[in-house]
Amino acid sequence: MDIIVSLIVIIAFICFIALIIWLVIQGGVSYEPPEKQAGRMGEQIATNVICEVLRKEDKLFTNVPVYADGKQTELDNVIVNENGVFIIEVKYFSGVIHGEEDDREWTKFKTSSGGNTYVKTLKNPIHQVKREIYILSRMLKDNNIKVWVEGYVFFVQMNSPVESPNVLRTRHDIDNAIHKPAERTLSQQTQQQIIALLRR
């Protein structure tokens, strides 16, 4: 009798594993680490906030892959308007962040509900957005579009450890960043060239 029960349990377990594998292959189930889920949620929150401040003439692109000079990256948000081209990188960090603007890495401290404090090293997102500015600027230049690209990091949790011109914390910050009057505005033709390139 024990052998029969054991066989039933083993067969049920094998069937369960086979079902999970089949669902993954069919695209019905996929595992996403909690940090990636939080990042996606943060990006959606940020996109919603950006959309609240967009004006009729603004064009927003999300999750834009860009390649230039042997480098590649994906831009969370790119806004194109007469004032210029703006990258907004989104960070949804929980906990307390420590670091300086020029540090290569920052440190995140998060205390669990049980009172345990966890420490994690993060790449400095200001450095990340500066790299993104370089790649997008180079890609535009390679396509004979010479424009100034601005880049910002939007902290959804408003917990940036530094004050920086590259850091956005609020809806008002985003509005100011993408709508501040430029010394030279982009022509409609230039805007359309940039938009066509970002849509590729």
Summarize the structure in words:
This protein is of the alpha/beta class. The chain has two domains: 1-31; 33-199, no CATH class. 42% of the residues lie in helices and 28% in strands. It contains five helices and eight strands, in the order H-H-E-E-E-E-E-E-H-E-E-H-H. The strands form two sheets. The protein has a five-stranded mixed β-sheet, sandwiched between helices. A hairpin with a 2-residue loop joins strand 1 (59-68) and strand 2. Helix 2 (34-53) crosses helix 4 (171-179). The chain is extended and about 80 Å long. The chain starts with a helix and ends with a helix.
Approximately how much beta-strand content do the residues carry? 25-35%
Give the N-terminus to C-terminus distance in angstroms. Answer: 65 Å
> Which outline best applies?
extended
- Residues in helix, %: 40-55%
Q: Work out the helix count.
A: 5
For the largest sheet, list the strands in their spatial order.
1-2-3-7-8
Strand runs, count: 8
Q: Give me the strand/helix succession.
A: HHEEEEEEHEEHH
Uncertain runs are none
What are the key terms here?
200 residues, three-stranded antiparallel beta sheet, five-stranded mixed beta sheet, extended
